[in-house]
TrEMBL record:
Any single biological process term in GO: DNA repair
Subcellular location: Cytoplasm
Protein name, UniProt field: UvrABC system protein A
Signal peptide: none
An example Gene Ontology CC term for this record: cytoplasm
SUPFAM superfamilies cross-referenced by the UniProt entry: P-loop containing nucleoside triphosphate hydrolases
Family statement: Belongs to the ABC transporter superfamily. UvrA family.
Gene Ontology molecular-function annotations: ATP binding; ATP hydrolysis activity; DNA binding; nuclease activity; zinc ion binding
Positions of the ABC transporter domain: 490-785
PROSITE patterns reported in the protein's UniProt record: ABC_TRANSPORTER_2
InterPro entries in alphabetical order: ABC_transporter-like_ATP-bd (IPR003439), P-loop_NTPase (IPR027417), UvrA_DNA-bd (IPR041552)
Family annotation (Gene3D superfamilies): ABC transporter ATPase domain-like, ABC transporter ATPase like domain, P-loop containing nucleotide triphosphate hydrolases
Length: 796
């Protein structure tokens, strides 16, 4: 009796463990955060919003998720930690109530040529096992169906350590599925010799057209001219067969040039080692342009681009080979797997079906498993990463998403919302950084940061429900119900860009005229063929400037001033005013502080513990030698100029004694794209994805081109900034440019002069033009998914 009463009392009292239902953050100061203190409810969906640069990523990714990952890494042994990235503790006083954080970000998947959608998930591995069990003829274990595994054969003597040691003959064999011709890449590279030299000239006449190989005094050129293998005074087209073979493919040999021993090597292997083995993105622009001209990639003739050996392609289940299965759209592959009924592999079939169904459910059914991972957009890559978490048994986990609606048509956003709610309903904490009103609407809790960007941001302006946000008076609250109106008048085109018979990827012989001299928006559901039509069919000539979603390569030393070329006129202005060399005003050259080499901070490696970055004591983080800081221009030294925001610098270089028109012009373009809050010396590594894209746009705006192609320029833009972007697009068109925008945002569609809508669906259900005309006609017509959503958006 008494024990029963005791149990009742225990149940009535709150359990101590139930008190930990909040993630508490106190005194967060990462990047631009100003002592932020908030409490985030667990097992709820919390959306973080605010203008670009307000501190959302600094709070969610660089503070909460970073500390969670650091604490998990510390649970491993020191030996294991030695192989893991070292993470410094974020600038925060207290972080309490953290759970395991899984980050599903917008980082594109590695562009390794052997990485595909199938290998990035478990789908390929399961298919290989399936074919190794059911394939006819049987050719071997799962590795026999892998294009990343080469066949190996070996034979020789081995010593058996048993009783009397005895050498016995042994053979070893492993069957792989790799095509030997393309080594599992599906493509073979070919070098266009006409881009390497002018065969009508001799070496003495400067036949080479390779960047940096023009000069006769250049050592590399001298090696070829004085090697003795070819006649330097004879035009290359007159070489004998042996001379041409030695010139192009000669083996490395030592030769004497001007009394110095050097290595002679054929031109083709020399080019492959000096240019093709390097990361193309890290090359200087003129070198990269040469590589893109000189190297052509063609489909491998032996495997027809499947990457697989003849044996792997010959083994079939029914009439389907593994190459056929990987080339199918995933939704078709899922239907085919459902037709298989084999009790011996029943658990495998169930797991494979679940994985493929997840692709379809998440809106990626139009992809195929052989699609190279590097060709996925940021939004597609993020959703592919989500697939492994949908069926996960983990609960009480924190999932962190970076704008999961990027690249999604309004039709697909509802599906993404359902997935986020499903993760929450399994008992997980879901943190989402987001700008789209449709995604903010499903939040249980909203945290609005701001009020501005950069130094004007970094504080919490609002915490609460979506309904309370609408009446909160913050920038986000005021703009949450913004709806762009349709234009009353549209511009008349000045010409047209004709595309005929476009069949890249899923396009079905599309004929379309893209109007020039106007703002033209290309839209359609994800996977309908928008990028294939524009990037695959619009000729990338001197008159076309494409600003796509590819990331900027930036080190800790790169900043907006160096990336945009702004630092050159600033350095020259300082040098001229003080009568010294421009190199003194570069933190990467002669003016750098010798202690920190111009980095401004000293990095201390603490072995298995996280490294520490501390400001350089000699230059106090200013990056320059003290003698350089004595030189002034307009009353400021170079470190003070780099500490200015774009808006301050625009005013500084626009008038008075510091007036520098070349610098002012670049700063105006940065302000035009909404980056007025960035400081000139801020490292590129601290910029968000949206900021980097707009930095790229500002740089390209200085180029002379008649046609601008923009790929989702609203990525990472707050509702309040979209209006500024529309103003920028208008200014470009009014200046006589043609602007083609691939976009899902309804405000951009409503503002367009002409809309081209692709669809009606994705993959093989898309690839056709379903509408061409003005936004008003699209709304009135309502014959497409885009038309329906745009009509609802403008309230028609």
């Amino acid at each position: 009796m008494s024990s029963a009463k005791r149990t009742d009392r225990r149940t009535a009292a709150a359990h101590p463990a139930d008190g930990h239902d909040m993630i508490r953050v106190h005194g967060a100061r990462e990047n631009n955060l100003k002592d932020v203190s908030i409490e985030i409810p667990k097992r709820r969906l919390t959306v973080f919003t605010g203008v670009s640069g307000s501190g959302k990523s600094s709070l969610v990714f660089n503070t909460i998720a970073a500390e969670s990952q650091r604490l998990i890494n510390e649970t491993y042994s020191a030996f294991v930690q030695g192989f893991m990235p070292t993470l410094a503790r974020p600038e925060v006083d207290v972080l309490d109530g953290l759970t395991t954080a899984i980050i599903v970000d917008q980082q594109r998947m590695g562009a390794d040529p052997r990485s595909t959608v199938g290998t990035a998930t478990d789908a390929n591995a399961m298919l290989r096992i399936l074919f190794s069990r059911l394939g006819d003829p049987h050719i071997g274990p799962p590795s026999a169906y892998s294009f990343n595994t080469a066949s190996v054969r070996a034979s020789g003597a081995i010593t058996v350590e048993r009783g009397n040691k005895k050498a016995v003959k042994a053979t070893y064999e492993r069957t792989g599925g790799m095509c030997t011709n393309c080594e599992g890449r599906g493509k073979v590279s070919d070098i266009d010799l006409t881009q390497l030299y002018d065969d009508s000239k001799s070496l003495a006449e400067g036949a080479f057209t390779i960047p940096g190989w023009k000069s006769d005094s250049q050592w590399t050129v001298q090696v070829y001219a004085q090697s003795g293998f070819v006649d330097p005074d004879k035009p290359i087209r007159e070489y004998t067969e042996k001379e041409l073979r030695d010139f192009l493919y000669g083996e490395p040999v030592k030769v004497k040039v001007n009394g110095v021993n050097l290595t002679y090597e054929g031109l083709i292997p020399k080019i492959q080692k000096s240019f093709l083995s390097k990361d193309k993105e890290a090359m200087q622009p003129h070198i990269r342009a040469f590589v893109e001209r000189a190297v052509t990639f063609t489909t491998c003739p032996e495997c027809d681009g499947t990457r697989l050996s003849e044996g792997a392609r010959s083994s079939r289940i029914g009439k389907i080979s593994i190459a056929d299965a990987c080339a199918m759209e995933i939704r078709d592959l899922a239907e085919w797997v459902r037709t298989l009924d084999e009790p011996s592999v029943a658990p495998l079939l169930t797991a494979l079906r679940d994985t493929l169904d997840s692709f379809v459910e998440i809106g990626l059914g139009y992809l195929s498993l052989d699609r190279p991972a590097g060709t996925l957009s940021g939004g597609e890559a993020q959703r592919v990463k989500m697939i492994r978490h949908l069926g996960s048994s983990l609960t009480d986990t924190t999932y962190v998403f970076d704008e999961p609606t990027i690249g999604l048509h309004p039709h697909d956003i509802q599906r993404m919302n359902d997935l986020l709610l499903r993760l929450r309903d399994k008992g997980n904490t879901v943190l989402v950084v987001e700008h789209k009103p449709e995604a903010i609407a499903i939040a249980d809790h909203v945290v609005d940061l701001g009020p501005g960007a950069g130094t004007a941001g970094g504080t919490v302006c609002f915490e609460g429900t979506v309904e309370d946000l609408r009446s909160a008076g913050t920038v986000t609250g005021r703009h949450l119900d913004d709806r762009a109106a349709l234009k009353e008048t549209v511009r008349e085109p000045t010409g047209a860009l004709e595309i005929r018979g476009a069949n890249t990827h899923n396009l079905q012989d599309v004929d379309v005229d893209i109007p020039l001299g106007v703002l033209c928006v290309v839209t359609g559901v994800a996977g309908s063929g928008k990028s294939s039509l524009i990037h695959g069919s619009v000729p990338a000539g001197a008159d076309v400037i494409a600003v796509d979603q590819s990331p900027i390569k930036g080190s800790r030393r790169s900043n907006p001033a160096t990336y945009t070329g702004l630092l050159d006129p600033i350095r020259k202005a300082f040098a001229k005013a003080n009568g010294v060399k421009p190199a003194l005003f570069s933190a990467n050259s002669e003016g750098a502080c010798p202690t920190c080499n111009g980095a401004g901070v000293i990095y201390t490696d603490l072995a298995m513990m996280a490294g520490v970055a501390s400001p350089c004591e000699d230059c106090e983080g200013k990056r320059f030698q003290p003698s350089v800081l004595e030189y002034r221009f307009g009353g400021r030294d170079i470190s003070e100029v780099l500490a200015m925001s774009v808006a301050q610098a625009e005013e500084f270089f626009g008038t008075g004694e510091a007036r520098t028109p070349a610098a002012h012009k670049i700063l105006q373009r940065l302000a035009d794209v909404g980056l007025g809050y960035l400081t000139l010396g801020q490292p590129l590594t601290t910029l968000s994805g949206g900021e980097r894209q707009r930095l790229k746009l500002a740089t390209h705006m200085g180029e002379k081109g008649g046609v601008y192609v923009l790929d989702e320029p609203t990525t990472g833009l707050h509702l309040a900034d979209v209006e500024q972007l529309l103003g920028l697009l208008d200014r470009l068109v009014d200046a006589g440019k043609s602007v083609i925008v691939i976009e899902h945002h309804q405000a951009v569609m409503a503002h367009a002069d002409w809309i081209i809508d692709l669809g009606p669906g994705a993959g093989h259900d898309g690839g056709r033009i379903v509408f061409e005309g003005t936004p008003a006609d699209l709304v009135a017509d309502r014959s497409t998914l885009t038309g329906e959503h745009l009509a609802a958006y403008v309230g028609a």
